[in-house]
Amino acid sequence: MKTMLTIVSTKKKPSLEDIKRAKEISKALNLPYFKRGKLTIEKLFKKVKEIFKTDKVRLLLVENLNLKLITPNKKELFFHPGLLKIRFLNILKKEKQNIDSNDDLFYKVLDLKEGDLVLDCNLGLCQDALLCAYKTKNTVIGLEIDKVIALVVRDGLKKYNFTGKMKIFNKLKENLYTICIDNKKYLETAKDNSFDVVYFSPMFINPKWECSQMMPLREIAIKSFPDKETLENAKRVARKRVVIKINKGAHELFDYLNDFEIVKAQTRLEYLVWKKK
Ligand SMILES: C[S@@+](CC[C@H](N)C(=O)[O-])C[C@H]1O[C@@H](n2cnc3c(N)ncnc32)[C@H](O)[C@@H]1O
Known about the structure:
This protein is of the alpha/beta class. The protein has helices at about 15-30, 40-50, 85-95, 105-110, 125-135, 145-160, 170, 185-190, 215-220, 230-235, and strands at about 5-10, 55-65, 65-70, 75, 120, 140-145, 175-180, 195-200, 240-245, 260-265, 270-275. The protein has two domains: about 5-75, Brix domain (Rossmann fold), CATH 3.40.50; about 85-275, Rossmann fold (3-Layer(aba) Sandwich), CATH 3.40.50.150. The protein has a seven-stranded mixed β-sheet, with helices on both faces. A four-stranded mixed β-sheet has the order 1-2-3-4. A hairpin with a 2-residue loop joins strand 2 (about 55-65) and strand 3. The longest helix is centred in the first third of the chain and has 14 residues, at about 15-30. The structure holds S-adenosylmethionine (SAM).
């Protein structure tokens, strides 16, 4: 697969701080810096494509010191609570009614307890990881293969001020520890039984619906599914469970998932669950 070129630039009429930050990121991530000048985003993309002779370009934009990743289709990726808010408010509602929050399917399949240590192998926008942090009150280790997505989301989450019923995440986000690495590589060297739950949420495979929240990620993220060896390592590393979130039916595409139980959701997804004996 041809890799995507990421250019670092700033908003129009940037401050000196914006320019400094953009140049620092360009150096740290080894990505080309492009002076914005008066160019519109459209013209900036056009120019970059001509100079670098590629159509696959995304833009890491520094704007008032905040980071935004602009996809080739000009969609914007940055941290936002998105669906996390709806999911969390539902969990709170159940807690208020004295219903065990493990009644929520996500918690049920992960079977989380306070103090559990979770390895989230597909950190993405951190929504699942934050829900894990809420339940376990413990550190969550999140793996993200894409260094630009990792930086944009980590920076955005750090600055994001949760309000109202979500306020608790201002504290919980400190429990999230991001490592920018391919989960396959990480699991190869991780110690036996070093996490309670190892969780995967790869990009859905040919989903028949569009989720606006995930659109920017869909466009630019690597769409790899954990291979047999990675899952064998995940089972070795997990003390209790390995869970994979997929779109319904996607398990049929792989012949090495027989020892995973399929748990169907009411929505268009399902979970594959493997329990350690
Ligand atoms: C569907 S998103 C995960 C969404 C996430 N669970 C959330 O709650 O926001 C999949 C993410 O996994 C990342 N990814 C894909 N392959 C990976 C790999 N081999 N190792 C680590 N991260 C990977 C992608 O870059 C993308 O950010």
